[in-house]
Amino acid sequence: MNASQPDYKGVVPLALAYLQVKTSDGRQAVLVAAEVGAIDVLEYLVKDCGCDLNRVGGTNNMNVFHLSTLNGQFSFIKYIINTYPQHTYLLHSTNDNDALPIHAACASRVTQLVTFLIDKMKCDITTEDKIGYTCVTRACTSGNLDLLKLLIKQYNLNPRIFGKSSSPQVAVASGNVHILEWLRQEYHINVASFKNGALPFYAAHFNSLYCLKHLLNNYSFDINAINPFD
């Protein structure tokens, strides 16, 4: 070897080993690529570097579909389905919180992605995770009212007005006043008495000042009331 040429012996194995290193929240390189929808990067990682699409990591041990659906990476998701059909079972796998990728998709605001997963990939939209979130309540977090209406009216999902992690409280916690107002009108909700007057406390707890002002300015809440859940 010419003395002026660098010695790359061992560099490639070291680089490949580095790709298996996890971020601080447990995500490996393939999961980071999934999060941002980087198709070329994923192709390189899987085909040239031997990275495994079955990996899970991050909050609650999510897979490539959890992370890509959460960020609405529709093209990326279709690429995996078409190129690696053996991994489509991951669409039907839960994370540690019992959430499916379809739940994450409903939080993404991307209606076309959600309908594709329901109609073409036959994802189950009837389940809830450990904290009581469903496809409907995830749609409430997204702020996409058209998607919420679609899930309730076309796919006949429970609007989740009452019970654990209800639609109105999730809408308030997410600062989505327009979602709350649609639910109020559609299901004749008494906002002031809902959950024993707890909605302003949800707005305050989740730092939603706009929603808090809306509640106090438009409904008869006692500003000096005690949190009913204390």
Primary descriptors:
230 residues; mainly alpha; disordered N terminus; Ankyrin_rpt-contain_sf; repeat; Ankyrin_rpt; ANK repeat
Give a topology summary.
Layout: H1 11-18, H2 29-36, H3 39-48, H4 64-70, H5 74-83, H6 101-106, H7 111-119, H8 135-142, H9 145-154, H10 167-173, H11 177-187, H12 199-205, H13 209-218
- Broad shape: elongated
Query: What share of residues are in beta strands?
Result: under 5%
Could you give the order of the helices and strands? HHHHHHHHHHHHH
Distance between the termini: 74 Å
Helix percent reads 40-55%
Sequence stretches where pLDDT stays below 50 over 5 or more residues: 1-19
Number of helices: 13
Structural class: mainly alpha
Rg over CA atoms, rounded to whole Å, is: 22 Å
Main sheet makeup? none
Q: How many β strands by DSSP?
A: 0
Mean pLDDT: 89
